[in-house]
Amino acid sequence: MVSLGSLWLPILLSAVLAFFASFVSWGLSGFHKSDYKRLPQEDEFLAVLKKVGPARGEYMFPFCASPDAAKKPETAKKFAEGPVGQITIRPPGMPPMAKMMALTFAFFVVVSVFVAYVGSRALRPGSEYLDVFQVVGTVAILAYSASSIPHTIWFGRPWSSTFKDIVDGVVYGLLTAGVFGWLWP
User: Fold this and answer.
1) Residue 132 and residue 168: Cα distance in Å, rounded?
2) What kind and span of H or E run contains 13?
3) Which of 22, 181, 8, 3 has its CA nearest to residue 109?
4) Which run of H or E residues covers position 31?
5) What are 78-134's pLDDT values in tens digits?
6) How many domains does the chain have?
7) Element housing 173 (H / E)
8) Is residue 134 one of the residues assigned to a domain?
9) Region of residue 41 (left: phi > 0; alpha: psi -120 to 50; beta: else)
């Protein structure tokens, strides 16, 4: 069995590489540029939101507090006429990029720790590169790719955006697998 402590270098290095790949994908390449669209009449929409003043949070519309509420004719009419969607309200001001980047890096470290844990239980010291690559890569790709699929199924996120997230996850997973295969004790 391999100790987690002996995997600190691949944990950190894979997190750094995945973070860098994320920066390239989201910041430099334009790969995700088409994920979001501008609302028609954005200024008017923002004026209405400002007037309504929703607190920070996630909202669905039309809103159904229970399955019984969804069965009411007036609710069915709202859904039929539209619009139907969700919206996330953040606090006013520019997004805190440094904080968000630090939390993203922490996410990559946490995923790498869990990937290391699975690898340390499934593989022996001195395992071949390809064996490590296969086990660690499978776990990492699953960790990075699968979570966005339910959001598309349940909340109507475009499949094109989810597909790009899956591509990102495969890249992050392959980078993670390569690092662990290379540095496996």
Assistant:
1) 21
2) helix 8-23
3) 8
4) none
5) 999 999 999 999 999 999 999 999 999 999 999 999 999 999 999 999 999 999 999
6) 1
7) helix 159-183
8) yes
9) left
